[in-house]
Specification:
By secondary structure, the protein is an alpha/beta fold. It has one domain (16-264): 3-Layer(aba) Sandwich (Rossmann fold), CATH 3.40.50.620. It contains twelve helices and seven strands. It has helices spanning 16-32, 50-61, 76-93, 102-106, 110-119, 126-144, 156-168, 172-175, 202-211, 228-235, 239-259, 282-289, and strands spanning 42-45, 66-72, 97-101, 149-151, 192-194, 267-268, 275-276. The strands form two sheets. Strands 3-2-1-4-5 form a five-stranded parallel sheet, with helices on both faces. A two-stranded antiparallel ribbon has the order 6-7. Helix 3 links the parallel strand 2 and strand 3.
């Protein structure tokens, strides 16, 4: 796959009824679950992909006072194009964009970090490395800038896949932290996450994006193709399966949260002072693992 090819903007004919229904669904989710209060300062995590681009646009259109944050993990032309797209998009919307970089924060790209961990016999999937290190930047930046909520572009498909992965991995305690307004973790150091697109299928988000001719990449991240989540996508593709999982989860979430109540109280990482469930947070553990000795030069990216 040539990640450096000229980007083609995908479009669909506008369906104003669909667009209005989509935006109403987001508005209802925010209202029903009290995701945003009048005095909240909301930071939207954006990657340049369809989900976060649509989320930012809709929240701005609905009248919320938002700013955006993006993190470049340096996957060649893929993330370079995404960054250019979201930078121009935020400028057009009149939304302030906060930009961070893996190389500036950690010294290396996500692909290099993943390769180095594998070389040191401490392998982690690229999605795990990316997620852990991105979340630390996002949480710290949001807290230090005074944001009270972080909005992410997670959709119905994402949540159904995560629920199923946690079940087959016997990690029900992680399911207790899910939902449109994830909870359980009790610590002032964490900025509350919210998911306004929680009940919207990925297919509908793609349609909405194409109807607005948003400049986004619709393919998968090239580093995620071998991930467990990517394997599950085809298994959970039929709409009835996703909706059944979500129906079961909504019904049982109060029971799951009650069972794991009190397990989310955290301490502080001895290295970075961020909230952590152990003496050294997972992000700092990864950073420590990638320190000297230096790897072979050909591994650099």
């Amino acid at each position: 796959m040539n990640l450096c090819q000229i980007q083609q903007i995908e479009t669909l004919s506008r369906d104003e009824t669909f667009i209005a229904s989509f935006e109403l669904a987001v508005k209802k989710t925010i209202a029903e679950f009290k995701l945003i209060e009048p005095n909240d300062k909301v930071l939207v995590a954006v990657s340049g992909g369809k989900d976060s681009t649509v989320l930012l646009y809709v929240m701005k259109k609905l009248g919320y006072d938002v700013e955006a944050l993006t993190i470049d993990v340096h996957i060649g032309c893929y993330t370079k194009q995404n960054f250019e797209n979201i930078k121009k998009f935020c400028a057009q919307l009149g939304v302030k964009l906060h930009a961070f970089s893996f190389r500036e924060e950690y010294g290396y790209s996500v692909c290099y970090i993943t390769s180095l961990l594998k070389e040191k016999n401490k392998p982690l999937g690229s999605c795990t490395v990316c997620g852990v290190l991105r979340r630390r930047i996002l949480n710290r930046a949001a807290r230090e800038a005074g944001f009270s909520k972080i909005a992410t572009g997670h959709n119905l498909d994402d949540e159904a896949q995560t629920i199923f992965m946690n079940i087959i991995k016997n990690k029900m305690d992680l399911n207790a932290r899910l939902g449109p307004n994830p909870s359980l973790v009790e610590d002032d150091g964490f900025v509350q996450r919210i998911k306004p697109l929680y009940f919207i299928p990925e297919e509908d988000i793609s349609k909405y994006s194409k109807m607005h001719a948003f400049p986004v990449h619709y393919g998968r991240c090239p580093c995620s193709l071998s991930s467990t989540r990517n394997t599950l996508r085809s298994l959970l593709a039929p709409p009835e399966i996703k909706f059944n999982i979500m129906s079961w989860f909504r019904k049982n979430l109060p029971i799951i949260r009650e069972k794991f109540k009190g397990t989310g109280v955290l301490g502080r990482c001895s290295v970075c002072s961020e909230p952590a469930s152990s003496s050294v947070c997972r992000a700092c553990s990864i950073v420590q693992d990638i320190k000297s000795p230096e790897p072979a030069e050909f591994l650099r990216s």
